[in-house]
Amino acid sequence: MAENSWYVARVRIGAEENVRIRCLEQISSQILRDCYVFHYKEKRNVQGEWIVQEQILFPGYVFLVVRDVEAEKINRELRKVKSAIEILEMDGKLAVLTDEEVNFLLELSGQGQIIEFSEGIIEQSKVRIYSGPLVGKEKYIRKIDRHKRRAVLEMSLFGEKQEMLVGLEIVLKTH
After folding, report:
1. Torsion of CA 44, 63, 18, 67, to 10 degrees
2. Residue 44 pLDDT > 90, yes or no?
3. Burial class (CB in 10 A: 0-12, 13-18, 19+), 143
4. pLDDT at 1
5. What is the SS3 assignment for 93-141?
6. Cα-flanking dihedrals φ and ψ of residue 107, to 5°?
7. Which of 88, 80, 168 has the alpha carbon at shortest distance from 132?
8. Above 70 in pLDDT, residue 15?
């Protein structure tokens, strides 16, 4: 097992940040290294003015960075935190994110918890991102909503295909 492993806990939607803080306070630092709730920035039109808001990337999930310990210790510690429902499992074992999945999330969020807004253009039906965390990640874009200024990304996460919304403004489209 690696020095640190990333697990995903399913929590009540709306309780993510509260659970994250309580995990950091109540779980031993000898077990829990860090805890994340990923967000993305998006632009919303409110009364004719575009404002930037943060939204939760994975509602109902908290990411736990755990030191190399047995799964039973992790579950025992997590039970101390109210609102934490369960750590995801695959094939009867706790689901651990792969290095690729962890790196993808950390690259998108700039090693933090917030995915900044990206900008790009569409040239002859091909998307090209020129600023923001989506630079070089065009292959993950499945859909673009130009009106709402966001993109749907698709990636394998938690052992299955996941869709995630991120902020993206297409500033130019050519035919």
Report:
1. -150
2. no
3. exposed
4. 43
5. EECECCHHHHHHHHHHCCCCCEECCEEEEEECCEEEEEECCCCCCHHHE
6. -65, -45
7. 168
8. yes
**Contact, 77 vs 22, CB < 8 A?**
no
- What is the pTM (predicted TM-score) of this model? 0.86
Question: What DSSP assignment string belongs to the chain?
Answer: --SEEEEEEEE-TT-HHHHHHHHHHHS-TTTEEEEE--EEEEEEEETTEEEEEEEESSTTEEEEEEES--HHHHHHHHHTSTTEEEE-EETTEE-B--HHHHHHHHHHTTTTTEE--EEEEEETTEEEEEESTTTT-GGGEEEEETTTTEEEEEEEETTEEEEEEEEEEEEEEE-
Distance of alpha carbon 83 from alpha carbon 63, whole angstroms: 14
The gap from C-alpha 118 to its chain's centroid, in whole angstroms, comes to 16
- pLDDT mean over 139-149: 93
Q: On the CB side of 116, how many CA atoms lie within 13 Å of its CA?
A: 10
- Provide the token pair at 92: 């009867």
- In this predicted model, what pLDDT tens digit does every residue of 111-138 receive, in sequence order? 779 999 999 999 988 999 999 999 999 9
